[in-house]
Amino acid sequence: MKSCLSILSLLLLFSINGNCAGSLHRKSTVAADSLNIQPAASAPAKVPQTGAEQTALYLEYLKGKKAGILVNQTSVIGKTPLVDSLVAMGVDIKLIFGPEHGFRGNASNGAKVSDSVDEKTGIPAISLYGKLKKPTKEQMAGLDIMIFDIQDVGARFYTYINTLGHIMEACAENGKELMILDRPNPNGFLVDGPLLEDHLHSGIGMYRIPISHGMTIGEFAQMINGEGWLPGKAQCKLKIIKVADYRHDMPYELPVMPSPNLNTQQSIMLYPHICMFEGTIISQGRGTYMPFTVLGAPQLKGKYAFSFKPQSIKGMSETPLHQDQECYGIDLRKYDMAKLRKSGQINLAWLIEMYKAYPDQARFFDMSQSKQMGNFDKLAGTENLKKQIIAGASEKEIRASWEPGLSAYKTMRKKYLLYP
Description:
14 strands; 13% strand; NamZ_C; NamZ_N
């Protein structure tokens, strides 16, 4: 039977995705009832092609299905929001779900996002960051399938992998399939850090993984299933549209910034290395237009020449640490990221250096006077790191304490990889 796509839909399809040829290849995964759809063989692309861009691999499958979709501003085909593209191509989207920072990605860090109606499409938009962590039974009842397409950055404390887990839980509970339109991990080459200790589970760390997990969202979903991390070891039925021409070790520059305070490629690459500073008295540049590329505090005047002044910025950081105070410290905006890539390790030198430089070390990890959300132990995933830094442990000694857990994770991770 010929495709029922209208001529308009076909034109939109070809304008958004120039390579619509291809076949569906079914392949079982380690997760029960999972289905990976492989992109058609092609010559190596200059840049990876995201799952969303390969519309020929999933549009037919979505025909006739009532879909829910979890997206944010990174969910695009070319420069067009994924929701707008799919609606134009006839996909029946009933509900839009949004994570931290909201559906359009313009909410401040940690800010509550209210439910609304998307002005462009008229589709209800529901926040999953706040009171509601996952779709309700009533919301899921009106859906045949859930679609997940959000750009992750590969760090344990970046909340989108938690959102993924909640969505998988809702799908498993209600017998719905989850389609993941996979995207590259810009820090996919980095697998390092202490594993999260069980008693430190929180909203910034739900899974026993290192700080930088080195997986795409699709791979991580397989790990959640395979390791039995859903309540009752439930299994979520998965359909993963893989990224074409992607390797974990390849550089990947994001076409859309993933959140208000990760607004440059440099900040995205530095994020796994300096986010732990959110559990200290040191500012990471929130309240400036260069967040996660600078480090400093007012008390470091005279020890560093570089300075910056955090201020309230709507939609980014409205009550930043050290607001309206000159902060002195380290400028990483032009730091050679090839050094971090080559090392393959979380940088601990900056943390140790600034602790030693801070004049009142007893207050370095004391967040009682801070407006920040961080808790150092929860961000690090272990209570040991803070104790080790205070005790003057070397980087070598600190890294040795991450074993054998880190090596065990790396071995386990291999079972779920979709890409070399």
